[in-house]
């Protein structure tokens, strides 16, 4: 088998897209390994993900020839190598459970990532009990006055390392609108709440005060409005009256870790397509 | 075994409450069948529920003698018969899945209720496919101008039927503050959303627009602020990008029915105690 | 829009199937509304479900012309009308929560069924609290000696009513191997257990004895080996030490009702394809 | 506040136990912080857990004086320090996700443990990507011929380190009956299956073959019959037809890690009492 590719695309829905795309691949010797499509009848939009073995046709040939077809349908599209690890920059503050979880999944080969940088507004000692190995650690403290420079430095590191994905793994700083725009579509945040239930700070304390019976977490793309970006994945669990805010924080760690890891996996496998403020998620 | 009783109480926490209450029951020949307590260390409040066989001591004796002990601790308390069906008034609008569900549970003996009235702002035909049997049905239409009279009539029916619990089973009218106050602590609403996520009207459409990946429902006591009453029970389920608002409404029906039924059961079994804007729920 | 159709098919996987099928539909003016495929790489089998608007091409034309394509790939396939209610025979014994649930979903238009018969080994009075309306009720008691005749009568009723689906809604009789074979692929059972956890009789009591912390239910196609048919849907819930067998039975009713209803919906929408002893389930 | 204690007890149920126990504590200046009881009406057994501040009464005084009360009721009982970390020996084979998870929870102070030994039948390199810090690692390979000696050495290490709890964190060796008996009540295993669904080897592959729609994991006390010990905690998740055995293994890792960690937490907090082959679990 040749190196598998993943084609993702979206466009206005009209008859024949599936036929044209699948015929395009078949005519070039491609063999579909997995395919999903979604016809959004409410917005008349079409979304597709195809994982395929390109056979003898070189990737660049497929790319250049598909461009013409894509033009016909005014598609947004992407052709990616399925098995190439993605270069990932992870940002963290003092709570490193999501970081530790991502690193473990990387080390055992579960998450196809190559961590190229860890950035924190706190010094390395703040997460002293986690083994970050040889991954470069950048301590970039931030104050109101230095935020612009700090964010510029973050962009530099992302550029220098060719980071394809930025993961905010409980990075407790709000990105500026410009920074959010710069990383648009390739920056995932874990919001430690079941959005839109409790936005803003200390959501577990808010949840306790309100007396809810479930808590959750939300992984979403970062946009200028931090708590309003397109949601990729959410999960929730039951809680009870005896759960103190501290207990909610403890339970929340588990939910946050697994929701973020799942969102990162879905993104890396090119399974998440944007549909306005919503997402289309093609699970396997 | 004598007829089992349920004692529920709350007061400021201090040493010796459990000892005094359990000794009180033991000295009168009572035998505890089930007991729970909750020491709320954040508010220094104490909550207890005891289900017991009173042996040979008459219920009235226990009630009058316990009053003295309750005074000592400045308790709020209640002594109830465990197995006596509660008289329940159910209010409904056009969607009757919660009503149908409650009636089925009543008919097979699962819910210990005696439905004494069904009140709707729509005529009987609106829920024509549900068999309400011999339960009196009251069609009480409501407009802005007639709301006061309509609510007065609802209170009359509740009084005439000795209704102990009012269940808003998808009753799509907001109670006036006065009405909410009148039924305080004995009126349960099912909010067709995972509070506080989407308050107000059409929460499933809001959820769709926001692109969340889970929906839920919340059963809560009715207070003047309709979406802010103490929550008794919540549940949620995963949804996907292909779920239209109509699909969310369909999935929501199942969640709403079972969340409301569970909240009603917990309330009827005297398992729900108020703790400010929060609830203590003693599951069996 | 013409009347939507659903095409389902399975065959050995090989390159070009998607291209051929989608081109076939496009060339005849068909417009895909929803499509899913599954390439089972472990068994090299291919499964597809396409919901489409056939445009001006008559259904019979599509059917006859697709037959040729299907032959090329040695497909098993089916072309169905999406919105035509399916004729359903429901079998029940003494516990009618699943029956009541299915009938409610039918009455409010949620489940696209036309109930053509209710068959029970108990008399109508056994389910006296459920309104079966005008649906013919057949009391067919069964003993070891009369089982063959009773099953023959069940087949007759199914034939006379053109029942397309037989739902065993807590029908507590084991079908003979011959009967199971006769209804193969169109008979769904709800097993009141999380298969394969507790096969056989009284699974909730078995679960209690074993001290498990979750219970569930399984909807599956009926085969000669009753507890081993292909599973369509399962769900489970947490339980605790205080849950008696009776409480498990109560909690089980809710799980059973919703698991069976979901399986019936999936089947009726042609979303379930057989893959040996397993199923492929194309959710919307 | 003095150092909090936890009293757990079980005995035949009879009137007055709660009164006697709570009065005992009150008379000695004890202040209850949390208390639960369970009257098992099916077996007429009584279970209780009380977390309390002993005030000025020394722990040893409480212990010796309670012994007399315990005798009266023929109780099995234990008096433990709530906040003292428990000495834990962790056994592992090649898959170390549960080990890594437990160590992370220990390092951030979530789990009140003191890891005193890691024992593996594989060399340290097998779990090379996990930082075990200064915890002694014992490589104890085992073959059929050396099993007796290996188990003796495990017992020695447990004795030398005063291990109070032995956690089988995906230790893929079956303990001999004698070894299981030796560690009875203080050895927890994570079974990578939703017991009793798939006992024995390769449960995820069994689950795949059977085509189930949910997988789960079970944490239980080890007994001579490995898959039949009293279950402490279970959880499950939905899977689909596209999940290969490898995907099930991946999803299983998450479930296993959190189910085992929760069971260990419940055990360490003295929240799990044995009730024959079942457990009573007093959640907070």
Layout of helices and strands, plus pairs?
Four copies of one chain form a homotetramer.
Chain A: E1 5-12, H1 17-27, E2 31-40, E3 45-53, H2 59-72, E4 76-81, E5 86-92, H3 97-107, E6 113-120, E7 137-139, H4 147-160, E8 165-168, H5 177-182, E9 187-191, H6 203-210, E10 214-221, E11 231-238, H7 245-268, E12 272-275, E13 278-281
Parallel strand pairs in A: 5-6, 5-8, 6-7, 8-9
Antiparallel strand pairs in A: 1-3, 1-4, 2-3, 9-10, 10-11, 12-13
Written account of the structure:
4 copies of one chain form a homotetramer. In chain A, the strands form 3 sheets. Chain A has a 7-stranded mixed β-sheet, sandwiched between helices. Chain A has a 4-stranded antiparallel β-sheet with strand order 2-3-1-4, with helices on one face. A two-stranded antiparallel ribbon of chain A has the order 12-13. In chain A, a hairpin with a 2-residue loop joins β12 (272-275) and β13 (278-281). Chain A has 7 helices and 13 strands. Chain A has helices at 17-27, 59-72, 97-107, 147-160, 177-182, 203-210, 245-268; strands at residues 5-12, 31-40, 45-53, 76-81, 86-92, 113-120, 137-139, 165-168, 187-191, 214-221, 231-238, 272-275, 278-281. Helices cover 31% and strands 30% of the residues of chain A. The mean pLDDT of chain A is 96. Chain A is globular, with a radius of gyration of 20 Å. In chain A, α3 packs parallel to α7 (245-268). The C-D interface holds C 38, 40-42, 194-198, 209-214, 216, 218, 230-236, 238, 240-242, 244, 275, 277-281 and D 38, 40-42, 194-198, 209-214, 216, 218, 230-236, 238, 240-242, 244, 275, 277-281.
